[in-house]
Amino acid sequence: MLDKVHDIIVIGGGLAGLTSANLLSRSGLDVVLIEKKEHPFHRVCGEYVSNEVRPFLEKNGLYPEDLGPADINKLQLSSVSGSNVFVDLALGGFGISRYSFDQFLAQKATGSGCKIVVGIAENIIKKNDVFETKLQNGDTIYSKLAIGSFGKNSQLDRNLNRSLTSKNPTYLAVKYHIRADLPENVIALHNFSGGYCGVSRIENGLYNLCYLTETRNLIDSGDINQLEEDILYQNPLLKRIFQQSERVFERPLTISKITFSKKDLVSKNVLMCGDAAGMIVPLCGNGMAMAIHSAKILSELIVKNLEGNRFDSVTIHDDYCKQWKSNFSVRLSIGRKLQYFFGKKLMSEIAVRLLKTPFAESIINLTHGNIV
Ligand SMILES: Cc1cc2nc3c(=O)[nH]c(=O)nc-3n(C[C@H](O)[C@H](O)[C@H](O)COP(=O)(O)OP(=O)(O)OC[C@H]3O[C@@H](n4cnc5c(N)ncnc54)[C@H](O)[C@@H]3O)c2cc1C
Known about the structure:
This protein has 372 residues and is α+β, with helices and mostly antiparallel strands. 33% of the residues lie in helices and 30% in strands. The protein has two domains: 5-42 and 97-165 and 261-340, FAD/NAD(P)-binding domain; 48-95 and 169-258 and 342-372, 3-Layer(bba) Sandwich (FAD/NAD(P)-binding domain). Flavin-adenine dinucleotide is lined by residues 11-17, 34-37, 44-49, 120-121, 149-151, 154-156, 173, 198, 210, 212, 258, 274-276, 279, 282, 285-289, 291.
């Protein structure tokens, strides 16, 4: 005899999982979300959210207005040598820490009836139309549908036999929150050899400083402080920010083994959402917007294809793949190509010059989607 079969299990409580959990539980569905860590917690992320999802968040009471997000409407791009340009961002975005934003969405989801379980999902299989999710603590959760929103790199990818290998280099990312005397409305992207660093305002007068670098840079330098002094400081604008700012965290937050390889949208009948479906390079500044948007597409299809107490899984799979591809495929591939301009002396100089031409807005728009 099975324990209770829930309508939906959502694995991973980042922006994709939390947005899905909110929309689905509000529609009256019985949703369980499994997250490895207890909210709130810090994550490595640039924490700049493109305004393409702001109307959707506002309409659904999911925009964190009361947390004081920063309004950002300008981009500063600097080359490895420090030459730079400021460009207006037609759409712009808002800055908010993931610590606060994810916690805000988790509380909203719980308030709508979603059950959040802190635990690690180790495996998931579909047997006789029911998904069985095994947790590391030995529990099993049963559900009619399963959403995989477990981010860019999870042990669950291996357990579901998803191949995430890539011939391209892997990246390391480092994040700080800092106090600094910087413009409030600017997201800066500073190049350095083998990587780039984003700096932008979040809530409470703080700034996020987050950089992505090829793993070989760390191997060559030995440790993070040395890496910053040897490589990031070669860009004079970055050197000034590092030297004139105060760090809020005692130690930086880091993640490694980041790749931007293509992924399956559905693996073993689990519907993938957010970075688990495909990750855009961070320099585009819209991975979070894509995570939210993909969750919206998927949740709406799930609600639409509920027949009595059954889901029409085939239609959900097919329509989700079509809509996901039409919304995100081109952006992902443009993002991968743009990545080649970054972290290189000459190419970053060319990128700065391109943004000084009348084509600047069109280039930026290529990486962004329509307003949701
Ligand atoms: C360096 C860097 C900077 C970035 N900067 C920006 C930016 O400024 N703007 C922007 O829009 N995007 C940015 N991004 C991208 C953005 O962070 C992601 O696109 C976004 O977080 C994706 O959300 P998600 O919900 O898919 O995944 P995540 O937010 O990664 O959430 C996945 C969750 O799943 C949980 N999980 C994983 N495995 C399991 C398991 N087995 N069981 C239970 N839980 C599990 C994890 O703990 C995690 O909480 C950046 C990315 C990087 C690497």
